[in-house]
Amino acid sequence: MQKPNNIEDSWLIIEYQNGHKNALTLLVKRWHTKFCKQAYYYVKDAAIAKDIAQDSWQIIIDKISEIEDGNKFGSWGLAIVSRKSIDWLRKEKRDFEKMKVYFEEEKQISIPTLKNTELIQKLRKTIETLSIQQQLIIRLFYTEGYSLQEISEQLNLSKGTVKSRLFYAREKLKLKLKY
What we know:
Blueprint: H1 4-17, H2 22-43, H3 46-63, H4 73-107, H5 118-128, H6 132-143, H7 148-155, H8 159-178
Helix pairs in contact: 1-2, 2-3, 2-4, 3-4, 4-6, 5-8, 6-8, 7-8
């Protein structure tokens, strides 16, 4: 016996395949929150989970015409969200490793234009206590002179995320340098 939810999903998919666009809206209302929760289970960040759910909907919309058994929509959609979440985690791990290697190399390079005063040394040591992402944004913004937009394009992050990381990095530096 089919569950009532599966029957409703099947009906909505058939309706959408027959050209009724409102059926997709109802399908999204039924499943979007579940997709966000599924993505959050993996990434532990609500904003990223919403982005992953949105990307998953794009794939679902592109392939919904191929669905033969609408009863399996839920498991099919959740599998897409899970794969997208895992892909995001893998990409984050690769990016983190690249940044880590970059900072290890940068620590070995001295900057000849700056005088090695106690304050500069203290600032460098304090910056090293920040997360790798915050260190990277501090360096790109202050040392390299990139704009927020350029940094967001380089790191494939939204401009708001870059701005936020820069703000929190500066706040941490202020607190640590006060003492």
